[in-house]
Amino acid sequence: MRERLRVAMVGNGFMGAAHSQGWRVAPRFFDLPLLPSMDVLVGRNPAGVAASAEKWGWRESSVDWREVVERDDIDVVDIVTPGDTHAEIAIAALEAGKHVLCEKPLANSSAEAETMTRVAEAAAARGIRSMLGFTYRRVPATAFARQLIAEGRIGDVRQVRASYLQDWLVDPASPMTWRLQKDRAGSGALGDIGAHAVDLAEYMTGLRLGRVSGVLATFVRQRPIAGSSSGGIAAAASDAPPAEYGEVTVDDVALFRGRFESGALGTFEASRMATGRKNALRVEVSGSLGAIAFDLEDLNSLELYDATEPAGEQGFKKIIVTEPEHPWVSAWWPAGHMLGYEHGFAHQARDFVEAIATGEAPRPSFADGLHVQRVLDAVEHSSEGDGAWVEVAGGAD
Ligand code: SOE
Fold first, then answer.
1. Which atom of ligand 1 lies at the shortest distance from residue 104's CA?
2. Can you give the CATH number for the domain in which 88 is found?
């Protein structure tokens, strides 16, 4: 019998469902050195978290994360709560000797991210592992793109175009949520989806951003508070106007330029107002010998342009990244049977369990998350300074 790795997850929203899928499926497709068990799910509402635990396959439920992270029968704490609680939970769990997986963005500020990174690095010296949840690194096509670029298949990287486009906030009637409140989320599109664009661009190219220049905009400044119409929840389903509105305190759209430490240039878009785009994370890398393009809305494919081919035969070729030699794919289905959004969470769980068992330092680390947070902070400072170029703190560490 393999040793169990007893997991507690804090949070039972959208990412709670996604991470639960990862923990549930990973041991059934990958031969893991430790057997993760879904032991405790923590939420805020007793009935709600009990229902989520039963639906997602957790043994117990709790509303007290402080008690859970101290339990001797828990080895891993997986944090899938809004960003304003990441630091407190992660620090308590690391100091209690638990391995920690934390959803992105690492924290709502660079100051919090610096403290978390310091505590994580001290814990690593005691054999405690920590990892950040940038799961798009764990799509076979993006990992394969990183391999091709590292091998020099597109030559020197000169330009990166990264965009993450959604449209769930286009309708002004879309209600207020924690993602629209700066004290809960830290920022809007910039941190929620811009963080993914920054991390994925750097992961695929192996480059780091050194300075940025950006602009943020908020188009809908007030949103209805769900259930606030005069007749309560029941009336909310009708056309009754909501009685209360809340202030939106974050960006709807973030646009920025970046110069990588290598000298390469990048353009970045993060928008939740991109009408018609549902979850369109795209990264295109232009090099001296070719180009590579990835689109999350077609996540099993990668486009490769080889400029060394005979001029008359050049063109973007579409690679279906489902061969057994592609990252993680051999655990799943035969070529062409396609993977989905949720497989990245199974790959994440697999990689974290392997790192805990082997003692290797998992990536992305909290230090990687700190760097992304510093990029986001620099974009915010630039936007406040009318788009002036701002150095990314931490420079070439
Ligand atoms: C935003 O709607 C969101 O849920 C992000 O928070 C996730 O990180 C992204 O993977 C999907 O979109």
1. 8
2. 3.40.50.720
At residue 239 the predicted structure's pLDDT band, cuts being 50, 70 and 90, is low
199 in ligand 1 pocket by Cβ < 6 Å?
A: no
380: CB partners within 8 A, 6+ apart = 187, 190, 214, 216
Q: How far is the CA of 136 from the centre of ligand 1 (A)?
A: 11
How far is ligand 1, taken at its centre, from the CA of residue 36, in Å? Answer: 25
Residue 331 lies in a domain: yes
Q: Give residue-wise pLDDT tens across range 182-232.
A: 999 999 999 999 999 999 999 999 999 999 999 999 999 999 998 765 444
Report how many domains make up the chain: 2
Q: 104 CA distance to ligand 1 centroid (A)? A: 9
User: Residue 62 pairs with which residues in a beta bridge?
Assistant: 42
Write the residue with the smallest CA distance to atom 6 of ligand 1: 192
- For residues 110 and 147, state if they share a domain: no
Instruction: Say what the pTM is.
Output: 0.95
Q: Six-digit token pair at 307?
A: 């400029």
Provide mean pLDDT across the span 126-151: 98
- Residue 235, pLDDT above cutoff 60: no
Residue 57 has pLDDT above 70, yes or no: yes
Choose the final residue of a domain: 136, 162, 194: 136
- pLDDT, tens digit (0-9, with 9 covering 90-100), for 94-107: 999 999 999 999 99
Looking at the structure, tell me whether residues 174 and 314 fall in a common domain: yes
The pLDDT tens digits of the residues spanning 321-345 come to 999 999 999 999 999 999 999 999 9
Task: With respect to residue 347, please indicate whether it lies within any of the assigned structural domains.
Answer: no
Residues listed for the chain:
397
Burial of residue 88, with CB atoms counted within 10 A of its CB: 0-12 exposed, 13-18 middle, 19 or more buried:
middle
Decide if 116 is inside a domain.
yes
Structural domain boundaries enclosing 280: 139-337+363-368+370-391
CA gap 109, 112 in Å, rounded? 5
Of 168, 164, 176, 234, the C-alpha closest to 201 is: 164
Report yes or no on 355 lying in a domain.
Answer: no
